[in-house]
Amino acid sequence: MHTRDAKIKVLGIVGSPKRGATYRAVKEALDAASTVPEVSVDMIELRGKKISFCIHCNKCIKNGLRYCPTFPEDDMRDLYQPMIEADAYIIGSPVYQMTVTGQLQTFFNRLRPIAPLFTEGLFATKVGGAIAVGGTRNGGQETTLETINNFFFCTGVVVVSGGVLAYNGGAIWSKDRGAKGTEEDEVGMRTLRVMGRRVAHIARVMKYGVANLPKPFSSSELAGIDQEEMRKGFEIRDRLREDEELEERRTFS
Ligand SMILES: Cc1cc2nc3c(=O)[nH]c(=O)nc-3n(C[C@H](O)[C@H](O)[C@H](O)COP(=O)(O)O)c2cc1C
Question: What is the Cα–Cα distance from 103 to 15, expressed in whole angstroms?
Answer without folding.
Answer: 6
